[in-house]
Design brief:
The structure is a homotrimer.
Chain A: H1 2-15, E1 18-22, H2 28-37, E2 41-44, H3 51-57, E3 60-64, H4 70-85, E4 90-93, H5 101-111, E5 117-121, H6 122-131, H7 144-159, E6 162-166, E7 170-173, E8 178-181, H8 194-208, H9 212-232, H10 237-250, H11 253-259, E9 262-264
Parallel strand pairs in A: 1-2, 1-3, 3-4, 4-5, 5-6
Antiparallel strand pairs in A: 6-7, 7-8, 8-9
Chain lengths: 265, 265, 265
């Protein structure tokens, strides 16, 4: 599988998919730069007057609710509904799921339009599962990751979406696969929006790669390895934010394959 | 007092307060990164449907009017009113006070909800005092800093807020204290939004430090010293923006204490 | 002319014009930082309640439709109408012209308020000319640049605006002049929003330089040379974004004049 992941990275570089982002204000600049760095083309557009046209001309869509409000959520509904109806792959990033009842209401509606992939941290995935009325036993959970994996399996069963739980180990759950990625560096948690970047990169990969689970694994491992290599030459999170973009742009096959830590079950 | 300021920095690192920001588009990314770098956790949220819940679950609030509009100001009113009613400390950053009548009207209303701290540059503090119908003699002022200090004293007397005037020398004015901080580097004026970063860091410190005036002094001195040290290794303001984040993250007690220039009266 | 361009750069540094930006979320931070780096003062403000006042107190205006919506376009109309009526120079950046019918409708209305300069890439200028019912022959075009130049000439004839087509070669078209600038580096296309930065810098230069075509040439050549020099010391687009700001700030006359590649016809 390792070689395939690299081929997917090359495919994104060669085909330059157009990725439509309805995302949060905090991360827009970094998200656009990360997409450019891996070879994709970003569009940020949220006007109700144009989001349907934008979905049509793009190759994939990202919905990230980080700084949602009543106008933006309407745009998100229009765009995700359109993506579902014209079969464009799309990624849901449920930022802050569980933090407010408003977020949970919006997320529940977004699930209706069948995201191709949902990426969040463990607590977001657990909260989203509750929102979607997916019962997790809880009692049997001996650790948050166990609870998150169960939530992810149930979310997948209910929605059909590939679920990606990001964290110290990234876990990707789909019908027949469970992939564990063990790359990254703890300093990455001190850079805002790298989770949002991950969601955008996933969109770039599912836009052009047929095997969607591999696409998610390629996007996540690319970002984590880039972060790991960038952290080695960064005095702090400011430099890390900059160097990750450099590494997404100039990473070599050798660097990628020698650092990749992937486990499948 | 010097040792206490460092203890406050450690306290923020150890307690990781959740800081709710209703701030401007220009600085959101840097603000979030600066909060992460000092050990706090940022939330950016402005939807009227959720700001009250966000205030409740956060440890402090920042209201920054930099790119205000009619919707956002409503959110600011709801959030600051809530913060006042549940006794959450909050910081007002009156960006562009005096520039338009709209800003002054909004600021006057925000003062009604009793900010814990107000931070602005000298001209903003002077404009805000006028907005609040605090008369400054003007005639006696021999320099802008004299006028700003008088405006700050009168603003403090009227609102109860600690007033922080930022500039080449930062001046912190409260009931019984006047603190002068003489750190920083002139290149910091060429990086957008470091004033906004200061306001966000103040929120992180008043969230967990009981002595609010010391909390403000700790936040302001931390940022100024980080800027001073970062400027020494920066070829220009692009690098400086990056290196300040690194230094906020990795500054040591020795660096902080040997550079701190503080005068009390 | 080369010496004059450098004098214009010095004039911006010395006079620090106030530039009002109604621009897109993705680039606001970099735009503000680029304006500060060249010595100008940025204001970002879009509230309908204050944009007229902001236009009045600024020295030039930028309208950039990158992340437009119904509210923001109203603000853009109010601001550009005001700029036209009080004779403030303003720059139109038609981001994504031709991508959706909504963008084209908005652009057509903005043209009514007579932008001083329009800057876009070749496809945006061609799309804008179509929107403005400027017929381009098309048939005679042997290359996109030929078509873009014809579109620019026709747009200039219809609107009176100086047209700047940015790309590998930047082309500036006005009444009696056609200027070609051949600086830059291909890695600049991997940094989001450098076109938007160009538009903002143009505003800073037309704010204070009487000869508007030279002002545009000075802004464009400054950014391209800064990008060229910054690329030489950048491992990727993350570093490039940072180093361009440094170079805009510290570029010397010698660096500028020895690298400038300008052709007039």
């Amino acid at each position: 599988m390792e070689k395939k992941l690299w081929q997917h990275i090359i495919q994104v570089r060669n085909t330059s998919p157009l990725i439509h982002n309805i995302t949060n204000y905090v991360v827009m600049n970094n998200t656009a730069n990360a997409l450019l760095a891996v070879g994709a083309s970003p569009i940020m557009a949220h006007a109700k007057s144009e989001v349907e046209e934008m979905v049509t001309l793009s190759h994939a869509l990202v919905i990230n609710i980080g700084t949602l409000d009543e106008y933006w959520t309407e745009s998100m509904f229009i765009a995700s509904k359109k993506a579902d109806s014209v079969k464009k792959p799309w990624v849901l990033d449920p930022v802050g799921a569980g933090a407010t009842s408003y977020r949970d209401t919006v997320l529940n509606q977004l699930l209706f339009f069948k995201p191709t992939v949902i990426r969040g941290n463990a607590s977001e995935i657990i909260a989203l599962a509750k929102t979607a009325d997916v019962v997790t036993k809880g009692v049997d959970s001996t650790a948050i990751s166990t609870e998150a994996i169960e939530a992810a399996r149930n979310l997948h069963a209910k929605t059909g979406a590939i679920i990606c739980i990001s964290g110290e180990t990234d876990i990707i759950i789909s019908q027949n696969q469970c992939i564990y990625l063990k790359n990254g560096n703890s300093m990455m948690t001190k850079v805002t929006g790298l989770g949002c970047t991950a969601s955008a990169l996933i969109a770039a990969f599912i836009a052009v790669v047929d095997h969607k689970t591999e696409a998610v694994a390629a996007a996540m491992s690319l970002l984590s390895i880039a972060g790991e290599l960038a952290a080695n030459e960064s005095a702090g999170p400011g430099s890390l934010q900059t160097h990750i973009l450099d590494k997404l742009y100039n990473i070599t096959e050798h660097e990628f394959l020698t650092h990749l830590k992937i486990v499948q079950s």
